[in-house]
Amino acid sequence: MPNKRSSQSKIKGYCKICRQPTQLIFSFGQKPLANAFLSKPEDQEFFYHLYLVFCPVCQLVQLGDTVPPEKMFNDQYHFISSTSRDMSFHFKKLAFQILKLVSKKAKPFVIEIGSNDGIMLRYLAAKGINHLGVEPAGNVADFSQAYQVNVLKAFFNQATARQIYHQYQQADVIYGANTISHIEDLNSVFAGAQDLLKKDGLLIIEDPYFPDIVRQYSFDQIYDEHVFFFSALAIEKLANRHNFSLVKMESQPVHGGSMRYFLQPGKTRKKDPQVESWLKQEHKLNLDKIEGYHNFSRGIDKLTGDLKTMLYKLKKQKQQIVGYGATAKSATLLNYARIGPEILAYISEITPTKIGKFSPGMHIPIKAHQEFQRDRPPYTLLLAWNHQEEILAKEKKYRAQGGKFIVIFPQVRII
Ligand code: SAH
Ligand code: TMP
Ligand code: ZN
């Protein structure tokens, strides 16, 4: 094992929103940071206790132990939104949806929390819409300059909201995709959004939909950066706590099932009947109580066992297996299942900053996609399963030549 420094905590704790005691859903044990790729296998790694809890008051699923945000989101951040063609298209569509929402406003102002490389704001910038991205990872924020996207390199919270309020103006739309769930001080985010939004403004939040994670047992979504796991139940309670109303929800076919929540300031708004039907469905699944999560917890170990059985069997037959996509998610899967370089020869990747490095914890070498194309390994474990459609389309030739993908969720199988 490498030298490790652990964060110390036991399984108990209190909700990050209401400070009431939480209930344990699942513990994965000590895990390395999901995006902490190593230059050398001997590099020192930071470990934290990865476990998931439920607050029965807020009906909010969250990490028990958390990592300081500066350790994860800094100038060496590895996740670059525009590496996925499908996600680029997804955010282009959203930009046009926002454009429509603000087109009749006098002097519209749109803020994005976690704007990354400007994957969405570049379209608003091109249309001359007044906008601001708030992004603490300086290296990725710099990519958005090429598209004339305005970025404030900062963590969004109530203090940043006040700063924006004074330097710019109130906002018509505040939007965050795959980001709001990463921010431990969620109360501060909501308070800041409340200060910063115009009275008729909209707070739009998009994140993986936790009931979809439960349904597919896609437990790899649980790692240090994902502090919260949202459902309609949780978002409605959170909204009400901060004097917002959840007025609309739109499900999105990205990241294995996502949800876009529309929140308006104030309490007296009309809500879309769809919201009630999502809430009803979640109640039916018992997701308002800890009992609703027992089956999910059991499924995690069943799936891990099935995957290891399949991989060991293939290795016994002397088959080469590689991974596809050195995703942050795969850190949870590979470390929990203890799948190392003796099973996965390497992981194929297209992000330049990840290539040549080693995966956190298990130290699997990460190699350029060109190597995968040359090698044509007989079996490939699809770690970037949330981009399955895009990847299968890209790897048509590999599959036509006999290459096989192993997919994991909701059931381990070869395709
Ligand atoms: N919205 C993009 C990026 C998601 S990754 C997409 O959906 O692809 C999460 C991003 O949130 C990272 O770029 C990270 O640096 C940023 N982030 C984390 N904490 C933040 C905070 N408090 N305020 C603003 N951005 C934050
Ligand atoms: P994500 O699951 O967090 O979106 O990360 C996807 C990772 O997979 C990212 O590191 C880029 C990588 N990737 C590839 O290597 N090839 C691909 O075709 C795609 C879509 C992603
Ligand atoms: Zn709570």
Short description:
By secondary structure, this protein is α/β, with parallel strands linked by helices.
Question: Descriptors for this entry?
Answer:
415 residues; 7-stranded mixed β-sheet; 6-stranded mixed β-sheet; 14 helices; 33% helix; globular; binds S-adenosyl-L-homocysteine; binds thymidine-5'-phosphate; binds zinc ion
Task: Indicate the structural class.
Answer: alpha/beta
Q: Major sheet, described briefly? A: 7 strands, mixed
The side-by-side strand order for the widest beta sheet comes to 7-6-5-8-9-12-11
Cofactors, ions, other ligands: S-adenosyl-L-homocysteine, thymidine-5'-phosphate, zinc ion
Number of strands: 18
Residue share in helix: 25-40%
Mean pLDDT, to the nearest integer, reads 96
**What is the global morphology?**
globular
- Tally of DSSP helical segments: 14
Task: State the low-pLDDT regions, or none.
Answer: 1-9
**Structural Rg:** 21 Å
Give the DSSP E fraction (strand runs of 2 or more residues): 15-25%
- How widely separated are the two ends? 34 Å
Description:
The protein has 415 residues and is of the alpha/beta class. Helices cover 33% and strands 24% of the residues. The chain has helices spanning 69-72, 85-102, 121-126, 138-143, 158-167, 186-196, 210-216, 232-241, 273-284, 294-316, 329-337, 369-375, 388-394, 396-400; strands spanning 4-6, 23-32, 45-55, 60-63, 109-113, 130-134, 151-152, 171-177, 197-208, 228-229, 244-252, 258-265, 321-324, 347-349, 366-368, 379-382, 404-407, 413-414. Strands 7-6-5-8-9-12-11 form a seven-stranded mixed sheet. A six-stranded mixed sheet has the order 15-14-13-16-17-18. Helix 6 (186-196) links the parallel strand 8 (171-177) and strand 9 (197-208). The chain is globular, with a radius of gyration of 21 Å. The chain starts with a strand and ends with a strand. Bound molecules: S-adenosyl-L-homocysteine, thymidine-5'-phosphate (TMP) and zinc ion (ZN). S-adenosyl-L-homocysteine (SAH) is lined by residues 69, 73, 77, 79, 81, 113-114, 116, 119, 134-137, 140, 155-156, 177-179, 182-183.
